[in-house]
């Protein structure tokens, strides 16, 4: 049975579809078909980034889809090499050009740059300008920890609408989630089904094979991925699962016809290991992570 995807209202009233397709590590030549499959399935939200190198293919798939550009919420991110007021304004032009749009629905800063926070703030000011000029409908951040958010809010005029962070059963960042909630910032989960954990060694390896999740999945004839996505949605988070496979893209979208019990939600909450899978946000520097983002 098809279910309508509920929206999450952002702090400026803009509606964000709660499930989007992520395209990190989706090669450009597979991006068009993955996005097309998602839009055919009913997805209305795509999450990309300048640093993913596939904005152009995302745009092409959106423009040739049945509903066209108007039916899709487009989210992308400015890479750290483009931070600075003027550079970030220009980065908008690069992303919009590749996506083939005049307006981006949600533009975020991909990372804080703790070693040069002034540059991060200047980049955020550019996002504020883009929002005021109607070039973007909402602005946000990604991988911002409590300290980064606190420092940003001390300087910012506009509270970010979204903070996209690593968040799956094995790494839940309760401190960041609480800070986001307190300030009306929507928590958006990257690696929502634990993609980043799949290659771990040791006791806590893949979330897909976790016995607690597997048991819940089995009892409801759902897959572990569906149970994890349902858990996020019931806790009010936005999710952006990635797949290039049409059957998984459809599976990850089919999460609205069932409800986890409070005990099941609590059991998944209890799986947090506190162990990050992705890079340490404080270790992000231009020296180690900087790279040029091509012009449109
Ligand atoms: P996900 O948790 O979405 O997992 C993706 C992995 O799971 C892929 O290997 C995919 O393989 C596989 N997969 C997808 N669906 C299923 C399923 N139903 N059953 C079994 N396996 C499945 O992790 P990601 O790290 O990709 O994160 C999702 C999105 O979050 C990214 O695409 C990106 O948009 C965003 N992101 C943002 C970051 C940031 O710094 N802001 C960092 C990382 C991600 P396959 O494609 O073969 O199906």
Question: Could you please describe the fold and organization of this structure?
Answer:
This protein is 38% helix and 14% strand. By secondary structure, it is an alpha/beta fold. The protein has a domain at 7-192 and 236-241: TIM Barrel, CATH 3.20.20. Strand 8 (162-166), helix 6 and strand 9 (186-190) form a beta-alpha-beta unit. Helix 1 (28-41) runs parallel beside helix 2. The N and C termini lie far apart (41 Å). The model has no long low-confidence stretch (mean pLDDT 96). It binds NADPH dihydro-nicotinamide-adenine-dinucleotide phosphate.
Q: What is the CATH architecture descriptor of the domain at 7-192 and 236-241?
A: Alpha-Beta Barrel
Shape: globular
Q: Percent helix among the residues?
A: 25-40%
CATH topology call of the domain at 7-192 and 236-241: TIM Barrel
Order of strands across the widest beta sheet? 3-4-5-6-7-8-9-10
Bound small molecules, which ones?
NADPH dihydro-nicotinamide-adenine-dinucleotide phosphate
Task: Provide the succession of SSEs.
Answer: EEEHEHEHEHEHEHEHHEHHH
Structural class: alpha/beta
Q: Helix count, per DSSP?
A: 11
- Strand-residue fraction? 5-15%
Number of strands: 10
Quick overview of this protein structure:
The protein contains 11 helices and 10 strands. It has 296 residues and is an alpha/beta fold. The mean pLDDT is 96.
Note the topology:
Elements: E1 7-9, E2 15-17, E3 21-22, H1 28-41, E4 45-47, H2 55-63, E5 73-78, H3 85-99, E6 104-109, H4 117-132, E7 136-142, H5 146-155, E8 162-166, H6 174-182, E9 186-190, H7 211-219, H8 224-234, E10 238-239, H9 246-253, H10 262-269, H11 286-289
Parallel strand pairs: 3-4, 4-5, 5-6, 6-7, 7-8, 8-9, 9-10
Antiparallel strand pairs: 1-2
Helix pairs in contact: 1-2, 1-9, 2-3, 3-4, 7-8
Bound molecules: NADPH dihydro-nicotinamide-adenine-dinucleotide phosphate.
């Amino acid at each position: 049975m098809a279910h309508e995807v509920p929206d999450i209202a952002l702090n400026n009233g803009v509606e964000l579809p709660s499930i989007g397709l992520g395209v990190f590590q989706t090669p450009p030549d597979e991006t068009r078909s993955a996005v097309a499959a998602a839009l055919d399935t009913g997805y209305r939200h795509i999450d990309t980034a300048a640093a993913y190198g596939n904005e152009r293919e995302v745009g092409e798939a959106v423009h040739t889809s049945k509903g066209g550009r108007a039916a899709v919420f487009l989210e992308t991110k400015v890479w750290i090499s483009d931070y600075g007021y003027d550079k970030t304004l220009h980065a908008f032009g690069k992303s919009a050009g590749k996506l083939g749009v005049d307006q981006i629905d949600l533009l975020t800063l991909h990372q804080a740059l703790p070693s040069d926070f002034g540059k991060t703030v200047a980049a955020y000011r550019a996002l504020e300008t883009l929002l005021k000029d109607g070039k973007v409908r909402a602005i946000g951040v990604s991988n911002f920890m409590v300290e980064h958010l606190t420092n940003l809010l001390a300087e910012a005029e506009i509270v970010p609408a979204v903070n996209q962070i690593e968040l799956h059963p094995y790494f839940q960042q309760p401190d960041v989630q609480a800070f986001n909630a307190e300030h009306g910032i929507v928590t958006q989960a990257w690696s929502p089904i634990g993609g980043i954990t799949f290659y771990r060694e040791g006791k806590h390896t893949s979330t897909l094979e976790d016995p607690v999740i597997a048991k819940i999945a089995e009892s409801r004839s759902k897959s572990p991925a569906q149970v994890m996505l349902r858990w996020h949605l019931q806790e009010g988070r936005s999710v952006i699962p990635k797949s290039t496979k049409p059957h998984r893209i459809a599976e990850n979208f089919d999460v609205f016809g069932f409800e986890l019990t409070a005990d099941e939600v609590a059991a998944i909450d209890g799986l947090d290991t506190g162990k990050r899978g992705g890079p340490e946000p404080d270790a992000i520097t231009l020296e180690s992570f900087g790279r040029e983002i091509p012009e449109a």
